[in-house]
Amino acid sequence: MALRQSQEMKVTGFVDDDITLSGQTLDGLRVYRPTQLSEVIVQKQITDVLLAIPSATRKRRDEIISDLRRFAVNVRTLPGMLDLVHGRVKVSDLHEITIDDLLGRDRVAPDVALLRRNVTGNVVLVTGAGGSIGSELCRQIVDNAPQTVLLLDHSEYALYAIHRELSGLIAIDGLNIEIVPLLGSVADVRMMDHVFGTWKPQLVFHAAAYKHVPLVEQNVVEAVRNNVIGTLRLTQAALRHGTAHVVLISTDKAVRPTSIMGTTKRLAEQVLQALAVQQNDTCLSMVRFGNVLGSSGSVVPLFRAQAHAGGPVTITHREMTRYFMLIPEAAQLVIQAGAMARGGEVFLLDMGEPVKILDLAYSVIALSGLTVRDEANPDGDIEIREVGLRPGEKLYEELLIEDAAEASDHPLIMKASEAFIPWERLEPALMRLQAMIEQNDEAGLVAELQTLVPEFVGRRGGDMPPAA
Q1: Are 139 and 213 within one domain?
Q2: Cβ(394)–Cβ(382) under 8 Å?
Q3: What is the pLDDT along the chain (468 residues), one digit of tens a residue?
Q4: Which of residues 57, 72, 96 is at a domain's end?
Q5: Which of 335, 333, 352 is nearest to 141 (CA)?
Q6: How far apart are CA 230 and CA 278, in angstroms?
């Protein structure tokens, strides 16, 4: 009713799977069968299709969205049911198709016992707390009643933002949780001893890392200092102070890496793997997964903005594929994986099927009511332009180095057993890396990384890639 009263949009009918409703009228408008959709769009010159299917399965929702790609219509979703019931819907409230609509899957409800096992009543440290994964981990942790949350980040603004957000949530909900903002670097030994000695966290999520592949290619020294030595200093401090659990946030780019970023993350994994077998007091584990996508700064909003600006929509390579997961789901699974750890595990999150970025670009353009301009359709609206791989990028991402993974107690979490360098060999190599960092010896660092991670197939001998 609210939409019919709007001057901005004219509602012409409904489409429903329920055959008992076919041909009937609702508020004076006809209800059509899905097989009639093509005919209705053409005859009535439909420009927009609104999705109101909250009870539909993910499979059925995907089928509907895929089918709508055939038509030059703008596809949007309706707000929540409460807003509809109370008549608080305006045309401006209609949502464009999100990454969840395009790439999502049926959600598996989190295991509340796993979420709370190591969090409730404990002091929890999150490094990289202001980043995309770190900040969501903080939100999920607060939801599970810790005693204290320590927020560590070396970005002043990122730390300010997450501290302010969490403090506001706690005040609104009347929660008795202490939030402590800590400005500093995980590579600072004195800082790490101060944090662990003062607050004695029982659980650590280590999300602090430089992750932007092209930038890391241009800043090798700082990448090794932060991603490798920082992980070492943090883990050693945790061992010295008797921390119960440390969980490293890793990446699929650590598997047969083609970039400095992926190589440093694989080496960070090996630091925990090697130290895990040296002692039994601290449970060290890793969680490896692919790309996470939030509401902004991700590929779908970028493609949409490019399409709305008239194009071109830019992709790096027509054959590129990626695994995708939403940030809240990834954070929940990280916490649950950490709760299942016994020491030394590499956990893998089930990312679903890899998505071809070209197909994603086509979907965003089509569901924005536009058409692709190419040789087959020279009068189309938007060009898709291939701009080439960036330094260190690979066409396909993987989650496993070895051939197999075993199931865990959670359907979306697997475990892998992968080879690593024993501590007696790894420790002197890490000291060599530290010395090269102090000497700003980038060529030496690259050569040493190649030795320590022989599956690294990127540049050799310190050759610099072209500027991004």
Answers
A1: yes
A2: no
A3: 455 555 567 888 888 887 787 778 877 788 888 888 888 888 888 888 887 766 666 667 777 777 777 777 877 776 544 444 444 444 444 556 655 566 655 667 889 999 999 999 999 999 999 998 999 999 999 999 999 999 999 999 999 999 999 999 999 999 999 999 999 999 999 999 999 999 999 999 999 999 988 899 999 999 999 999 999 999 999 999 999 999 999 998 999 999 999 999 999 999 999 999 999 999 999 999 887 765 444 677 788 889 889 999 999 888 888 777 778 889 999 999 999 999 999 999 887 777 888 888 888 887 777 888 988 888 888 999 998 877 766 676 666 555 667 888 888 899 988 889 999 999 999 999 999 999 999 999 999 999 999 989 765 433 444 333
A4: 96
A5: 335
A6: 19
Q: Is residue 297 domain-resident?
A: no
* Helix (H) or strand (E) segment spanning residue 272: helix 260-276
Cis, peptide link before residue 79, omega less than 30° from 0: no
The dihedral region occupied by 159, where left means phi > 0, alpha psi between -120 and 50, and beta the remainder, is alpha
223, part of any domain = yes
Residue 169 forms part of a structural domain: yes
Phi, psi of 76 (to 5 degrees): -135, 165
Q: What CATH number should be reported for the domain holding residue 147?
A: 3.40.50.720
Contact 286, 246 (CB under 8 A): no
Report the alpha-carbon distance of residue 399 to residue 262 in Å, rounded: 12
Kindly report the pTM of this predicted structure. Answer: 0.77
- Domain presence at residue 405: yes
Same domain, 331 and 413: yes
Do 129 and 90 share a domain, yes or no?
A: no
Distance CA 142, CA 166 (A): 8
* Positions marked catalytic: 253
Which H helix or E strand runs over 160?
A: helix 156-173
Pick from 96, 169, 103, 165: which is nearest to 130 by CA? 165
Structure tokens, 276: 């895990």
Residues 119 and 65 in one domain: no
Neighbours of 157 (CB within 10 A): 9
Q: In DSSP terms, which residues pair with 95 in a beta bridge?
A: 77
Q: Is 155 found in the same domain as 48?
A: no
Q: Quote the number of domains for the chain.
A: 2
Report yes or no: 247 and 269 within 8 Å, Cβ to Cβ.
no
**Domain housing 19:** 14-96
Whether 141 and 119 have beta carbons less than 8 Å apart is answered as yes
Q: Are residues 164 and 247 in the same domain?
A: yes
Do 28 and 122 fall into the same domain?
no
Residues 76 and 138 in one domain: no
- Which residue type sits at 82? L
Distance CA 231, CA 208 (A): 9
- Please name the amino acid found at residue 6: S
